[in-house]
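re: ur question from earlier - yeah i can do the single chain one, its not a big deal. heres the input i used so u can compare w yours
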Amino acid sequence: MRLLPTTCALLLAAAMVHAQSADPEALLREGVALRRAHRDAEALARFEAAYRVVHSPRALAQIGLAEQALGRWVEAESHVSEALGAAGDPWIGANAPSLRAALGVIGQHLGSLWVDGVEGAELFVDGQRVATLPMGTAVRRVAGSVVVEVRAQGYETVRRPLVVPPGGEAREVVRMARAASPEPVRDRAATETIAVRTVPLDERPNPLPRRLAWVALAGSAVGLGVGIGALAVREGAATTYNADRSCPGRLSASSQPAGCTSLLDATSTWELAGTIALVAGGALAVTSLVLFVTAPSNERSVERRALVSCGVTLGAWGASCTGRF
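and the output i got, formated as tokens:
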């Protein structure tokens, strides 16, 4: 039974502490003292607590003045203006000149913003939604550069920078373009399906054989050209040897002068090189012909085939190729 009186005493003490902490006059006095100590954030918390207990114009005015000290210009203007509206309050009446002076200082940091555009569009300023168009009244913003964004369903979003003048008003008319309608997914899929069906996989020609045929044809042309050139050099060396009277002839003597020996060696070397090049060029020409005949054409008609024929005339040191592709 002794616990009951103790519990009641504790509850009574807690109630008295709560009543003291919830006393709006005490909270306002604490807030004013904190303001004088330049502890404005703590003072604002006391004024807001007092206003929650009793919605007095005095508490609201003190809130606005603390917000002014903290640079919260938009909120400060709203709260001080609302407090000045209670002209019948004795405290407001006595401090009205000071409050109006504070309101004038606050207004020097603010400007008005008015935007017109598509009805029902949403207005965002610096990422914060502030109004729906059409606007009934201009919104108050801190003076300076802001980013205005207007969003509306079915329209392209408009975003642009504006400058709000201190003590003035920025007005902007926003023209919005209709958003492009996205292509229906079903129609696009049907188009892609039709496009795929027009080119079956088993009817697509393989380009590799024809490419190899062209490579072989180019190689044959190089080989034949090198062979003809080598044989031409061989003929020049042989002509020089025959015209030199100091050379006894290839079969007429077992020993040759040094110059004649060099000409004979050059004649043999170039003759061998030319023969090898001509044989290689001819083999590549035959390979190219086979590939062109057997490879399917890249054109629409798969029955067309390339016809190539090459010939080498060794006696005249020449070569010729004809073809139809």
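The two ends are 118 Å apart (CA to CA). not sure if urs matches, ping me
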